[in-house]
Design goal:
8-stranded antiparallel β-sheet, 4-stranded antiparallel β-sheet, about 20% strand, elongated
């Protein structure tokens, strides 16, 4: 069997040189079978070099050896529980309890992978790769890896490396199974991290895990050995030393600076103060009514956007396509469950092209200059479309689940109106008794966190989008986070 290829050999380098000279000479030439083999190995060398050696934690029966109970040379039975990857009735009940709109109705929840249910049912008729091991108690355990892997005839000469990779995958999967955080992604109930295609291992050898990381993670997690990367906290670990946009007191300083310069460099925007603090932080904390005894900052900018910028933003949103707006989500038993409720009926589009468009860049640069928050802390601009009767119930832009994650919480919202509305569609702040009518080119700015604690939400800035009565409302959210988003 071939070795692990810890570094490129002279033979591989020689084969690469031979191919280079062959192409440069622009003449008909052929490589020997040995040179072709070496070049194929060279293609996967870089991926192999980065792999760390993994030692199994307990005796393992791999897919390359004769297994006493279940191996890849035996057809595996379909899952006894018949799970198709969609959410269960119990999960749906749990979702209904966790999320209610103002009428108490949670109407729809979609889990990642639910759209693949037909495919998973079809998989039940396929043959699967299983691995077994003897655990510390002397008991035999088995684990399903996914669809049985095949090697195309054209790559048969790579079988030794293919089998070596298979052994590494098997060891990795047992390590992942022993990891309490990762186990729910690969256990017998969900198989969220599973090789769903018979060519996964071959594609991994040929470098697709590096070329197409997200697609391969979804389709070929075991072969890419990245099941753990499906967890956000593993893929993007929290850096407690990451720069923070706001320290305590910075929120008030930012708004005070904008107001102080309203008649100077921001005079073209017609800045209006609709709400501002009147008490010190100490007075708020000591007051019997707490923070509700005072008011948060809320500003409007009547002429923030130019007509050509509005038109271009609408064009970019239309090009990306609008989809039903969700009402957030959470991980339940290793699945990301997204909520769609009667409380939010608008449609949205994430403007991926805004960063690369001159008009989009101008708008983002303007907001960055006003807030003095780095643009790297902004999410993608969320484009919104509200048609007749569509609305968004009372909500807050702060998401608690983001606090321990790398971007941190949404600390501020810059809300852009991209159209007038004949009737309805107002933005209402019930705790502040403020209501804003949509006006093309207008923008609002409010904080989502407390001045003395920028990692905690300010409940006073809860708001709602009132139903559109006549016309169509177009708008956009720009959310700034505490850390680099």
């Amino acid at each position: 069997m071939l070795g692990p290829f810890p570094r490129a050999s002279l033979a591989l380098a020689a084969a690469a040189v031979a191919l280079t000279l062959c192409v440069a000479d622009d003449s008909s030439c052929t490589l020997s079978q040995q040179e072709q083999f070496q070049l194929d190995v060279l293609q996967v060398h870089e991926a192999m070099r980065r792999e760390r050696e993994r030692e199994p934690k307990s005796p393992t029966c791999t897919r390359n050896t004769d297994c006493s109970v279940t191996g890849s040379n035996q057809p595996a039975e379909a899952d006894s529980d018949g799970d198709d990857g969609s959410i269960t009735d119990e999960e749906r009940d749990l979702i209904a309890k966790r999320l209610k709109d103002e009428d108490g109705d949670a109407i729809e929840a979609v889990a990642d992978g639910a759209e693949d249910s037909d495919e998973d049912e079809q998989d039940d008729n396929q043959q699967f790769d299983w691995i077994t091991r003897i655990n510390e108690k002397g008991e035999e355990e088995e684990l399903r890896i996914g669809v049985r892997q095949d090697l195309s005839p054209q790559y048969e000469h790579l079988r030794p490396i293919w089998e070596e990779r298979m052994d590494k995958v098997d060891d990795y999967m047992w390590e992942s199974y022993d990891d309490p955080e990762v186990r729910p992604l690969i256990d017998s109930n969900h198989h969220q991290c599973s090789d769903r295609d018979a060519s996964c291992l071959q594609a991994a050898l040929l470098g697709d895990c590096e070329r197409l990381p997200y697609q391969m993670m979804e389709r070929c997690g075991p072969s890419c050995m990245n099941c753990d990367k499906m967890l956000y906290q593993r893929r993007c670990p929290y850096d407690k030393y990451a720069p923070e946009a706001w320290a305590p007191g910075d929120l008030d300083r930012m708004f005070s600076r904008i107001v102080a310069e309203a008649n100077g460099r921001y005079s073209d925007y017609d800045v209006t103060v609709w709400s501002q603090p009147e008490m010190t932080d100490a007075e708020i904390v000591a007051h019997p009514d707490g923070m509700f005894a005072d008011k948060p900052w809320v500003l409007s900018f009547e002429n923030l956007l130019k007509d050509d910028e509005v038109e271009r933003l609408l064009e970019l949103a239309e090009a990306d396509g609008y989809e039903r707006s969700d009402d957030g989500g959470e991980y339940i038993d290793g699945k990301l469950v997204t909520y769609y409720t009667k409380g939010r009926t608008s449609y949205n589009s994430w403007c991926a092209g805004c960063d690369n468009d001159p008009h989009g860049r101008d708008v983002l640069a303007r907001i960055e200059e006003i807030t003095d928050i780095p643009r790297t802390n902004f999410e993608l601009m969320q484009m919104l479309r509200y048609q007749k009767t569509q609305h968004y119930h009372l909500h807050h832009d702060f998401d608690h689940y983001e606090v321990p994650r790398q971007p941190g919480p949404r600390i501020a919202t810059f809300f852009l109106y991209l159209s007038d509305v004949e009737e309805g569609g107002e933005t209402h702040f019930p705790h502040l008794n403020l209501t804003f009518t949509p006006k093309r080119g207008r923008a609002l700015l409010w904080p989502n966190v407390l001045d003395f604690d920028p990692f905690s939400p300010d409940p006073r800035t809860e708001h709602q989008a009132m139903p559109v009565v006549k016309g169509i409302k177009f708008a956009a959210n720009i959310w700034a986070h505490q850390h680099d988003w």
